[in-house]
Amino acid sequence: MNDLIIAPSILAADLACLGEEVDHVLRAGADWVHFDVMDNHYVPNLSFGPVVCQALRRYGIDATIDVHLMVKPVDRIIPDFAAAGADLISFHPEATEHLDRSLQLIRDQGCQTGLVFNPATPLDCLRYVLDKVDLILLMSVNPGFGGQKFLPDTLDKLREARAMIDAAERPIRLEVDGGVGPDNIEAVVAAGADTVVAGSAIFGQPDYAAVLTDMRERAAQ
Ligand code: DX5
Ligand code: ZN
């Protein structure tokens, strides 16, 4: 399996000083920046768009920016995020009319692709597009808000996705997002996740390095 990637969700950061927060969490040992984009249409909340992604790049952030689109439609905003410095762009299959076309659009823009599955969305469509996907993201909460409780049924779904990835024999990452922290990282990694999003569990603590170390140690158990 791939090495563990921890991707703090900046939704939980102090947005009044976002550049410093992201710099701080990366120096504390985080790997990627998880960038939650909400449009008050696909999900009932509003966050930030490409200008904020571009601002992080201008600030000097050079880590992988993992953009999680919770917007509908997706195609119009994909080139803007690519131009703003996104490395990886993920979207929900329900949010596009043409799944294959949206994946191809992301690749054409030079970014890696991700597909996101809500807790009640089956993985069925994956088998038709597995060769065009670099990351599978399983939501372990209903999307729209940080700080929610992890839904334990996600563990079975992680095992199902892990089996599909292993059978595909491609280096697809398996990410989990929502309510993940030191208390359940061991379980999600054991179920097959190799990429973990955590918002409030990291930014809600004063010592980011201590949480990240704790999470890595528990994941390795
Ligand atoms: C939810 C977002 C998550 C969320 C994670 O819609 O996609 O990335 O912010 O936050 P925590 O870790 O606090 O659940
Ligand atoms: Zn997210």
Walkthrough of the structure:
With 221 residues, this protein is an alpha/beta fold. The protein has one domain (5-219): Alpha-Beta Barrel (TIM Barrel). The protein is built from nine helices and eight strands. It has helices at residues 18-27, 50-59, 78-83, 99-108, 126-129, 154-168, 185-190, 200-203, 208-219; strands spanning 5-8, 32-38, 64-70, 88-91, 112-117, 135-139, 173-177, 195-198. The protein has an eight-stranded parallel beta sheet with strand order 1-8-7-6-5-4-3-2. Helix 4 (99-108) links the parallel strand 4 and strand 5. The two termini are 15 Å apart. The structure holds D-xylitol-5-phosphate (DX5) and zinc ion. Zinc ion binds at residues 9, 34, 36, 68, 177, 197.
List the defining traits of the structure above.
single chain; 221 residues; alpha/beta; TIM Barrel; 8-stranded parallel sheet; 9 helices; 19% strand; globular; binds D-xylitol-5-phosphate; binds zinc ion; Ribul_P_3_epim-like; zinc; isomerase; carbohydrate metabolism
